[in-house]
Design goal:
Number of helices: 14
Shape: globular
Oligomer: single chain
Structural class: mainly alpha
Strand content: under 5%
Distance between the termini: 47 Å
Helix content: over 70%
Length: about 325
């Protein structure tokens, strides 16, 4: 009876977050963004400049951002291929389909946890749960890059941020040193993942869970550095997409400042729990707050956030659903060709 009650409570909480709180937060963030854009100085002039950009050579920036979608998810697929290959052979194309299928699931689940589900579907029966630990290692690598770049950017933008929020001086120090400590600990655990598994191996053996992480014991510093490098390249792709969209939508801001601000935005998105629907509002809100320090073009900033969200998440999710229509759940003895 207690278990049944707990399950019902958890189900109620999930329904509340997904169908009530999530949409309500999305509406609130969207209204806040709308208000900031509506009160932008010279809004009509900015809109005319944006329309002119679509009729000029600047349209190439849109094609550049869209073409980088395949580079972005191609790098993630390469990373996934390397990780899964420590358990069983897998080709690049199956890895690519698994990654995009995961994006389809992640659209409606918090903090992209659905990506694990989609990727598991392309693994043979008996080996699906083993890939969860591999996916976590890949996610930690991406998080490490995000934390490190966000930390550096917080230091670079210290003067501007404290001018905007002078009452947050003490909180800012706690944030920076807290992130420094968290990044250091995470990096240590990441590059010593085999030692971490060995440390907990006795406890895991008692609970018959050791088989889920035993593949991580093969990881060495060279392999983990390679995964981290691919994650860093993905990060660069994200930044290039934003720089391209800023140029298209007339957001006049120095590239160095834009990179620093977007690194802080990525940091905020990484640590604040959200679902894809809310993420577009959260991304726009944080971008407007921070980029608004350096540019008055709220319309261009808002359009950039929506465009990047759409081409990086919604388009791949739609492609992933097409792959899911033809997915074949593999048996234990089947290989992915």
């Amino acid at each position: 009876m207690v278990i049944f009650t707990a399950r019902m409570r958890n189900k109620t909480i999930k329904i509340f977050l997904k169908y009530f709180f999530g949409p309500l937060l999305f509406v609130g963030l969207s209204f806040s963004i709308f208000q900031q854009i509506r009160h932008q100085p010279h809004l009509a002039q900015s809109w005319e400049q944006i329309k002119a950009s679509f009729a000029s050579v600047k349209i190439v920036y849109l094609f550049l951002a869209c073409s980088l979608i395949f580079v972005n998810w191609g790098l993630e697929s390469w990373k996934w291929k390397l990780l899964v290959s420590t358990v069983r052979p897998i080709g690049f194309w199956p890895a690519y389909k698994a990654v995009l299928s995961g994006v389809s699931f992640s659209v409606s689940l918090p903090n992209r946890v659905g990506e694990y589900i989609g990727r598991m579907m392309y693994q043979p029966e008996g080996g699906r749960l083993k890939t969860i630990s591999l996916a976590i290692v890949g996610s930690v690598a991406q998080l490490l890059v995000t934390l490190f770049c966000g930390l550096i950017s917080l230091v670079v933008l210290k003067k501007e941020l404290l001018q905007l929020y002078p009452e947050a001086v003490i909180g800012y120090q706690f944030l920076v040193y807290g992130l420094l400590g968290a990044t250091g600990l995470l990096a240590f655990a990441y590059f010593n993942v085999s030692a971490v598994v060995a440390f907990f191996s006795r406890w895991l053996s008692l609970h018959h869970l050791l088989y889920l992480v035993e593949s991580l014991q093969k990881f060495n510093a060279s392999f983990l550095a390679r995964i981290l490098l691919i994650s860093s390249l993905r990060y660069v792709v994200f930044l290039l997409q934003y720089l391209a969209m800023f140029s298209l939508f007339g957001v006049a801001i120095a590239p160095g400042i834009a990179v620093s601000v977007m690194s802080v935005v990525f940091l905020a998105l990484a640590v604040i729990p959200s679902i894809a629907l809310v993420e577009v509002g959260l991304r726009g809100e944080v971008s407007l707050r921070l980029l608004g320090i350096f540019s008055a073009n709220s319309l261009g900033i808002g359009l950039t956030s929506v465009t990047i969200w759409f081409i990086n998440l919604i388009v791949p999710a739609l492609l992933g659903t097409l792959f899911l229509l033809n997915v074949k759940l593999l048996s234990k003895n089947e290989e992915t060709s």
